[in-house]
Amino acid sequence: MSGAVWKIPGCGTIAAVAPSTVEGGLVQSKGSGRRSHRLWVLGSAMTLLAVACAGGSGPADREAVRNFIRPPADLDSSRLEAFRVGRALFGKRWTLEEGLGPAYDARSCLICHPRGGGGRPAEVGRSPAENASMVVRLPQGDHAYGRQLQRRFGDDQPGEGQVSLAYDQSRFIFADGEAVTLRTPRYQLTGMKHGPLGVRPTVVIAPKVAGVGLLEAVPEASLRAGADPDDRNGDGVSGRLAVTEDGRIGRFGWRAEAVSVEDQAARAFALDMGLSTPVRPGAEGDCETPACRRRLHGEMAGRIEVEPARFAELVRFTRMIEPPPPGPKGPAARRGSTLFARIGCAACHRPSFVTGAPVDGGRAGRRIWPYSDLLLHDMGQGLADGNSSEWRTAPLWGVGLRAQVQGEAFYLHDGRARSVTEAILWHGGEAEGARRAFTGLSRQDRQALLAFLATL
Ligand code: HEC
Ligand code: HEC
After folding, report:
1. CA dist list (Å): 327 to 52, 233, 272
2. 4-8, 102-106, 363-367, 400-404: lowest mean pLDDT where?
3. Which of 49, 311, 336, 412 has CB 3.0 to 4.6 Å from 449, enough for a Cys bridge?
4. Which ligand 1 atom minimizes the distance to the CA of 251?
5. Which residues, 6+ apart, have CB-to-CB distance to 267 below 8 Å?
6. CA dist 183 to 172, 412, 426, Å?
7. Residue 123, Cα to own-chain centre: how many angstroms?
8. Residue 98, exposed/middle/buried by CB under 10 A (0-12, 13-18, 19+)?
9. Sequence-distant (≥ 6) Cβ neighbours of residue 202 within 8 angstroms
């Protein structure tokens, strides 16, 4: 490997980058008894070096994580360069001239997945751009609005309609007196260009993207082995493979509709940004009406807007994003881990898998800890929308880092939960038994469980 080699104290990782791309220096400081790294970063390669280190291997590294977009620790210089290029495409703000739209929700992947993390619920009074990371999907397809309600049009004009939320509040009180306020969202669709929707919306926030390449590398046989659609073992938890119309197994998105990272990225370009790719070549994106199609830049009509090579780079990068590093487990967290299994959380939040061969090559046989079986479960009426009450088990890796990385944390498909406790209290359906067991725990045991979740 050519280039400078840096040994970063406390990180245990040696990283190397080509000297021409290094413009920064490194200063280490010790803060309040903890090891912390202060990195003065000027060059983008240096940023990668820093985050690669933050993703390294120990407890101190966890505290340094400020971004879910982290490369694997063992990248050689050519793959590091590919990561850098892909990362730039992830943040690229596409323009109308390049094919954005005509109807779209956001100009870049990064706007909806800030720092590679998840989105936030839409709010009244915020602009469509600020509300972009909550998306109105129309799974059945509407004759006028298509498969998604795009909220922007052309050069930042209002799109097909807007979404905002109001909440009904209720209280849950544990036997020991601890009270939790739960909020049930009510959606308001306003400024609907073609009149009321003809189909029911599914409103979701963006999930984080870290680790998806490894989830993709989980062999289908492992997913099949976990499925128990008829609940043969009688534990009240079934779990069903998300099978697409053409017989493939879905695993990405809140309902596991996308079969691969490439599929998910092509959907994002088509539905969220109105850009065509080799996988979804329609330049009009999700336009259903003639008026919308007329807004297409004429020269774009027959062209693939995100060229095959660019698209491949973006997909390759997305696959490379490392899962969040787990935190150290003290006595409370270790007890919480036992409780997690005992009260039935692990029946869906399956702790680990061993990967098969990754799509882009690389090492197979890596044990990963996503805490999800990647299956669909009936979660009860409380979490149902008009289309279904089934959701894919949300991977819990990184759940304890969300506030640290993003400065705020919203849980569940629509971000209604502001804490992990709220998220658990919304569990119903197949998870009703686990929810009840959770509410029956002593305060000390609940805290142990939460301490464990905070390390994921
Ligand atoms: C307008 C907001 C928005 C934009 C722009 C966007 N996404 Fe997403 N992303 C979402 C939402 C919402 C979901 C959940 C999808 C679902 O459940 O249908 C999602 C899901 C994903 C997932 C699946 C994660 C998982 O755990 O299953 C990946 C990977 C992803 N997006 C990558 C991308 C990439 C790459 C781009 C840019 C090409 C992008 N996204 C652009 C909102 C967005
Ligand atoms: C029957 C399967 C099932 C069981 C059992 C279950 N969960 Fe879940 N969990 C899910 C599904 C599915 C979701 C996503 C639901 C949604 O977004 O609406 C989820 C979401 C979550 C989330 C929010 C994650 C996020 O990123 O938003 C947390 C936290 C969580 N579960 C923790 C637990 C804990 C702790 C237990 C045990 C008390 C548990 N779950 C039991 C299926 C299950």
Report:
1. 16, 33, 34
2. 4-8
3. 336
4. 27
5. 258, 280
6. 11, 12, 10
7. 20
8. middle
9. 136, 137, 138, 139, 255, 385, 386, 387, 388
Burial 400-437 (b: 16+ CB within 10 A, else e): bbbebbbeebbbbbbbbbbebbbbbbbbbbbbbbbbee
Atom 42 in ligand 2: which residue has the minimum CA distance? 393
As a whole number of angstroms, the distance between CA 90 and CA 204 comes to 20
Query: How far lies 434's CA from each of 228, 237, 397, 430, in Å?
Result: 17, 10, 19, 8
Could you tell me which residues come within 8 angstroms of residue 262 by beta carbon, excluding any fewer than 6 positions away?
279, 315
Residue nearest to atom 2 of ligand 2 (CA): 348
Which amino acid, 332? A
In angstroms, the CA 384 to CA 202 distance is 9
Q: pLDDT band at 361, cuts 50/70/90?
A: confident
Q: Give percent above pLDDT 70 in the chain.
A: 86
> What number does the ligand 1 atom closest to the CA of 104 have?
1
Give pLDDT tens digits for 235-284: 999 999 999 999 999 999 999 999 999 999 999 999 999 999 999 998 88
Ligand number nearest CA of 277 is 1
Do you find a cis peptide bond into 328, omega within 30 degrees of 0?
no
Q: Which atom of ligand 1 is nearest to the CA of 137?
A: 18
Chain mean position to CA 144:
29
pLDDT digits (tens, 9 = 90+) for 178-209: 999 999 999 999 999 999 999 999 999 999 99
Q: Which among 69, 105, 109, 383 is the best mutation to test ligand 1's pocket, defined by most ligand atoms within 8 Å of the CB? A: 109
- Please give all residues whose beta carbon lies within 6 A of any atom in ligand 2, as ranges: 237, 254, 343-345, 347-349, 377, 379, 383, 391, 393-394, 396, 399, 411-413, 420, 423-424, 427, 430-431, 434, 438
Tokens 């793959």, located at residue: 79
* CA 255 to centroid of chain Cα atoms: 12
315 CB near ligand 1 (under 6 Å): no
CA angle 404, 117, 249 (to 5 degrees): 135
